[in-house]
Amino acid sequence: MLPIIDRDGRAKPIILAIVEEAISAGIEEVGIVVQPGDRDLFHNLFKSPPQPELWSKLSAENKQYSEYLAALGDRITILTQTEQQGFGHAVYCTLDWVDNQPFLLLLGDHVYTSAIDSSCAAQMVDIYQQHSTSVIGITIMQDKIIHKAGCVSGKWKTEQAILEIAQIYEKPTLEYAREHLQVPGMADDEFLGVFGMYILEPVIFELLASEIDNHERFQGEFQLTTCLDKLRQQHDAIAYLVQGQYYDTGMPLFYRQAVIDYYNNQRNNLAP
């Protein structure tokens, strides 16, 4: 619910920017996984139009924007993770809602700007439609922050675009990354980190269920990354180097910088 500034100078909750990213890719229905105590916050944003006495005070522009939010709300389902047991567990909470379909997965603390006309999410959908397999968005990441993200290694199927995955590892130490996660052709201080965007086939739920049922935790939680590594081994998955930038809003200093860079980069990408 922290604010971010969009390209038009409007302040909006981060979650709204994430929903709009999904909608930009043609996504028709959006599920948001929240803690039980936060349901009312999300319901008030997406499901509760202004009371008549407040509506009458809105400008014509803000009335139109309120109607836009209400239309978005009609496409949103608020899902609950009753216990916070990790990212993989949160994804598993969407099992019934996903209903055995491939789905686009976005992190709740990342926002994105594209370097091309297609949004980052639209790029992912396009790659999925071309290859008909699970797609993991990746980005070039400097060695000093690789311990904060999932890391992907492999070899390029198409130069600097599609990666044939050899390993996916959650928050590696720099020593482990240098030994196991270097990608041929990249600089020694560069790695491929997870972009925070995925398109997954529903078989991922079988892998998540197995780890949850067998209490297989990594770093104390049920992770998505360990199941992604099993997914690429047992089924299929590719990685796509997204043409764009992600902004991590989950830590104070990163969020501070994201507020500046997200607005500036959106404005710059609008330039002719």
Summarize the structure.
This protein has helices at 14-24, 39-47, 52-55, 60-73, 87-92, 95-98, 120-131, 174-180, 204-213, 225-234, 252-269; strands at residues 3-5, 11-13, 30-34, 76-80, 103-106, 110-114, 134-142, 150-158, 162-170, 190-200, 237-241, 244-248. The protein has 272 residues and is of the alpha+beta class.
Overview of the molecule:
The chain is of the alpha+beta class and 272 residues long. It has a single domain, classed as Alpha-Beta Complex (Spore Coat Polysaccharide Biosynthesis Protein SpsA, Chain A), CATH 3.90.550. Helices cover 39% and strands 27% of the residues. The chain contains eleven helices and twelve strands. It has a five-stranded mixed beta barrel with strand order 7-10-8-9-11. A two-stranded antiparallel ribbon has the order 1-2. A two-stranded parallel sheet has the order 3-4. A hairpin with a 3-residue loop joins strand 8 (150-158) and strand 9. The longest helix has 18 residues, at 252-269. 33% of the residues are buried.
Tertiary shape: globular
Could you spell the SSE succession in H and E letters? EEHEHHHEHHEEHEEEHEHHEEH
Low-confidence segments: none
In CATH, what is the class? Answer: Alpha Beta
Give the CA-CA distance, first to last residue. Answer: 32 Å
Write the layout of secondary structure elements.
Elements: E1 3-5, E2 11-13, H1 14-24, E3 30-34, H2 39-47, H3 52-55, H4 60-73, E4 76-80, H5 87-92, H6 95-98, E5 103-106, E6 110-114, H7 120-131, E7 134-142, E8 150-158, E9 162-170, H8 174-180, E10 190-200, H9 204-213, H10 225-234, E11 237-241, E12 244-248, H11 252-269
Parallel strand pairs: 3-4, 7-11
Antiparallel strand pairs: 1-2, 5-10, 6-12, 7-10, 8-9, 8-10, 9-11
Helix pairs in contact: 9-10
